[in-house]
Sequence to fold (284 residues):
Amino acid sequence: MTLKNRFLAGATAVAAIAAAGPALADHAWSNYHWSTPDGVVTIPVVDNTTGDWRPRVQLAVSDWNKSAHIDSAYDPNGTNNNRRCSMIQDTIQVCNSAYGNTGWLGIASISLSGGHIVAGTTKLNDTYFAYPQYNNEADKQLVTCQEIGHDYGLGHQNEDFNTDATDSCMEYTSDSTNNTQPDFHDYAMLDLIYGHNEGGTTGGGGGDPAPCKGRGCKGKSLGFGVGNTQAEWGRAVGYDAQNRPNVFKTNINGYEVVTHVTWAPDARRNTDPGNPHDHDDHTH
Ligand SMILES: [Zn+2]
Ligand SMILES: [Zn+2]
Ligand SMILES: [Zn+2]
Fold:
């Protein structure tokens, strides 16, 4: 399908969703999205990773670029500190490090301002990927693909680690073998998310950041990186099928910061029993 036709198909589907109500927007991440002038995200993915992570990041970028709504440059020349992984405006920063026994394989965080994503980060935890049960190509590619997918605004298709419901990387799965790439449904969701018309000024205050295109594009630092513990992510706003909190929200430096966590399935449960399970960001 041509870009134009896909765009129109997306716009039609958006109208259908609007008529049917929000329940059908099943795995968008609470309507979070980048501001785009024409429905195509050109935010570069900046690779700060080391070793074998680099080809995985590159593959994930090319996989997401198969969407008619994503055209991200892969920038191999990241200069971020991998432990801190600072938010840089108009970029997705990908980092790896031995972040320690945090309980998670990967986290994706987005910073929002004026109703739009203005920066994203992905952190990949070498501490857990060194354990034999996660030290395999499928798990590593799945998590790389999934966290970058979150940075574009996608949620999960399935949040039950005991099942393998799809062939998408946007899944908690019992078997990662066929879940290393996006599937058709992820691309359809991107059509929905980015098929909407921004309609000129959004009136959301603050205005959109200046466009930043192409290789080596480096925006300004937002002045923080997202930490590695639940205490630093804010309040839980989403839960997986086992009622473990997996989406968190806080405010840092004037930005709303949302973090999506891929827990290591067999890590010690770290639930949040004091928090009512309101599922407000979780429509599955
Ligand atoms: Zn879905
Ligand atoms: Zn928008
Ligand atoms: Zn996830």
Notes: Residues 33, 35, 116, 198 surround zinc ion (ligand 2) (CB under 6 Å). Residues 40 and 69 are 4 Å apart (CA to CA).
